[in-house]
Amino acid sequence: MIFLFYYLIILNFFDTLLTWFGLQYAFISELNPIMHGIYEVSPLLFLVIKTLLSIFLLLFILSKKVPQSSFIKALTVFATVFYTAVVFMHGFWLVHIF
């Protein structure tokens, strides 16, 4: 589980940077309505919130309080698969842009 939390932190970092870059230069649009609204309010707030999500995951790891329930494990696996697909999708559009 700890490995998946670290992996999610890395994926979230890349997703944050690539999404911000794509939004800044109008290469993409944010499909998550909550994050889209936050980005519309402030791109900096968007970056801060996305970064805080990674910090929270890191705090779980550092405090040795990584949840072990089967629900959290399933949710973590789902998030990992989803974020991996999103980061690959970002890579795909970046290759086509440049």
Description:
There is one protein chain. By secondary structure, this protein is mainly alpha-helical. The chain has one domain. It has helices at 2-24, 33-41, 43-62, 70-97.
Question: What are the key terms here?
Answer:
globular; single chain
Oligomer: single chain
Number of helices: 4
Summarize the helix and strand pattern as letters: HHHH
- Count all strands and give the number: 0
Low-confidence stretches: none
Any idea what the radius of gyration is? 14 Å
Secondary-structure-based class equals mainly alpha
Classify the helix fraction into a percent range.
over 70%
Q: State the major sheet.
A: none
Portion in beta strands: under 5%
Q: Report the end-to-end length measured between terminal Cα atoms.
A: 36 Å
Q: Please, what is the average pLDDT?
A: 90
**Shape label:** globular
What is the total number of structural domains?
1
